[in-house]
Amino acid sequence: MLNVTDLHIRRGHTVILKQIDWRVNRGENWVILGANGSGKTSLLRALTGYFPPTRGEIELLGGQYGSCDWRALREHIGIVTSSFTSLIAVAEPALDTVISGKFAQLDLWKKVTAAEKAAARKLLDLVDGGYLAEREWQYLSQGERQRVLIARALMARPRLLILDEPCAGLDPVARVEFLKLVDRLARSPRAPALVLVTHHVEEITPAFTHALLLRKGEVVAAGLRAKTLTSQKLSQVFAADVRLSRGAQGLRLSLASQQTVVCR
Ligand SMILES: Nc1ncnc2c1ncn2[C@@H]1O[C@H](COP(=O)(O)OP(=O)(O)OP(=O)(O)O)[C@@H](O)[C@H]1O
Predict the structure, then answer these.
(1) ipTM confidence
(2) Among 29, 62, 67, 172, which has the highest number of CB atoms less than 10 A from its own CB?
(3) Which CATH class is domain 27-49+70-226?
(4) What is the residue with the minimal CA distance to atom 24 of ligand 1?
(5) What are the pLDDT digits (tens) for 34-60?
(6) Atom of ligand 1 nearest to the CA of 39
């Protein structure tokens, strides 16, 4: 689905991404994990065509950046990011926000068909947000906004869905509920491949089969979660002696001194 080869991004003297090799195959869900400033956002921007590479290649669904219409390719990528939240009209009902995802536009002005409305309602139901259809954006809680944004991204039937730190700002219960939703989504028929960007191992639910670990713009490890999510590799990622434990509650990271790591 996605093939990133020898990707370098440099601006002036600053090396932002260096020699990134990353391949996402159908049926895989990836987490991108890295400390602040490790290059996660830059990589996402490169994937969506907003950060032209200095060197290397990005191939998405058989089309290659630079040699085909990248805007058409980008339509296959859905993205849920908090940077949208300030761009949505405050009085827009959630249903319209979802429908606008079909047209990759932020302010819905087009006449909407009954079929589009029905599809948007179905997606709101899928994210447990059916009750939000008529509610204005300005009144939605952070957790509700994230769910509406997922439904919005799904409206365009993306092949790849990027969740960029979707749990930032969620309370612990809302976070657990949101992660359950992501897991459910991953198992739904014709689900897009998921890419979760996070600093927190607790957010890596069983749906995520693979991990890409970044540090200072370079790949520390990429591959199956069992091989990449290890104490040794995560110590490299966070430049600290950390221990990864696996329990009934999922993954947990702590400093070797037993203090829980707070990354942000
Ligand atoms: N256009 C640019 N010019 C110069 N430096 C840049 C540019 N864009 C990003 N950087 C730098 O590249 C590094 C990686 O930034 P990026 O935002 O990708 O990190 P990140 O992993 O997403 O961080 P965070 O977790 O804090 O969001 C940072 O040091 C940043 O200042």
Answers:
(1) 0.97
(2) 29
(3) alpha beta
(4) 36
(5) 999 999 999 999 998 888 899 999 999
(6) 18
